[in-house]
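Person: Please comment on this record:
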Amino acid sequence: MSGRSSRVRRLVRVWDELRGRSGQRVVDLIRGQIAVVRTGAALACSTASGTIGRSDARARMAEIEHEGDAARAALVRALWRILATPIDREDLFRLSRSIDDVLDHLRDFVREADLFGPTDLGFAVEPLRAVLDGLDELEEALLRILRDPGSVTMAVLATRKSRTRVRQLAQARLTELFTGPLRMDTLRERELLSRLDAVGRRLGESADALADAMLKRSH
């Protein structure tokens, strides 16, 4: 009887996948991962603006990191059970890993800001807002996978532009720093700017992973 029930469940799953439900589930799981990372980016931005204390932000970021791990684990478990995916499984793993890397560097930014950050973190607000914009654009590109796959590659350009914006803002601030006197806070700020640039790079890698996946799918 249990064997028959197992076959029935498998047939139901196959039928759902043929109707596209599995594709929507995969997209929703990745969107869930992005939502957690966005929460982390918003927390980092609040830390930079002084809305939340640095030690409190560090404790909250540890919780967000666990949420991110759980979201990625849920996607991995689902991929073991789903028969058909909207893009290649290898590309899904690459996309998920890149999104997770964004959160890892946001965590490090908040931790380092608490450990040795300069008195004023205002320089980080605009780069972090660009990260938030890029995450929103990445989610929008994901939504197009099922409804308009041909437009995904163009949609991820907006995420790449956000990545470029993060780098431009960091470089502009570094230029300002190095034209002034060299102080301890200057070195601290430089390290945090480097961390923000790493956040932007990982965001760009997420966009590249999705664009590459869609290009492979079109061939």
Q: What stands out?
A: The mean pLDDT is 89.
